[in-house]
Amino acid sequence: MNEPAITLTDPPEGYGQWLIEVKARIRSAQQRAALAVNTAMLRVYWGIGRDILDRQARRGWGMKVVERLSHDLRQEFPDLGGFSRANLMYMRSFAEAWPEDAIVQQAVGQLPWGHNIVLLTKLKDPEIRLAYAEAASEFGWSRVAKVAVSASVRTGDQAHQNPPWGGGGGLFRPQPTHQNKHTQKKK
Q1: What secondary structure letter does DSSP report for 185?
Q2: 161 burial via Cβ count (<10 Å: 0-12, 13-18, 19+)
Q3: Which of 33, 106, 107, 163 has the fewest beta carbons closer than 10 A?
Q4: How far apart are CA 168 and CA 112, in angstroms?
Q5: Residues of the chain with pLDDT > 70: what percent?
Q6: Core vs surface per residue 119-134: b (16+ CB within 10 A) or e
Q7: pLDDT tens across 32-64, in order?
Q8: For residue range 96-109, what is the model confidence (pLDDT) as tens digits?
């Protein structure tokens, strides 16, 4: 099963640029595929959360049904994570926080599940939560950055007007907090 060694020759003219373009197309396709999977899973999670809320409201089901659902889903999908009682409760909170099915068309629908959990647990105000979701999506914030920013957020309307990184007036543009010797401007 060993592949025979190949002898590499010098690439022809234009090969380097073409290789860069091929790699870029592959990476772009990978990103689109990951986003499509993320969007599909967010729809599933939102739907499960909505189902839990509806059944609890209409049929009087208690919180024990979440434990039962967690058990049954983990039995059916042992290799697929994400069905712990805690995660099902996050799904419920997700559906409660974003009552419209169109969430996947909003910024929150473009963020990974873990990012959404951070937004749900750190930010209770829906306007602020949406603003952070939009900023995270636009600026490509990582979950770590989001945790740090979210943890320092003040509550109420003041946080929306004066985010912790400055820029007030609802502008969610992160500002550098320090400069190192490589980024300092010489005077």
Answers
A1: P
A2: exposed
A3: 33
A4: 27
A5: 73
A6: bbebbeeeebbbbbbb
A7: 999 899 889 999 999 999 999 999 999 999 989
A8: 988 876 676 778 88
Q: Is the pLDDT of residue 177 over 50?
A: no
Q: Give backbone dihedrals phi and psi of 183, rounded to 5 degrees, phi first.
A: -105, -5
Token pair, residue 65, equals: 């049904």
Give CA 33 to chain center in angstroms: 15
Q: What's residue 157's pLDDT?
A: 38
The predicted model scores a pTM of 0.68
Q: What single letter denotes the amino acid at residue 86?
A: A
Q: Going by C-beta distance under 8 Å and a sequence separation of 6 or more, which residues neighbour residue 154?
A: 162, 164
pLDDT at 121: 87
Quick one: how far is CA 24 from the chain centroid? Answer: 23
Q: How far apart are CA 145 and CA 63, in angstroms?
A: 33
CB 161 within 8 A of CB 169: yes
Alpha-carbon span 96 to 153, nearest angstrom: 22
Answer whether 111's CB lies under 8 Å from 148's CB.
no
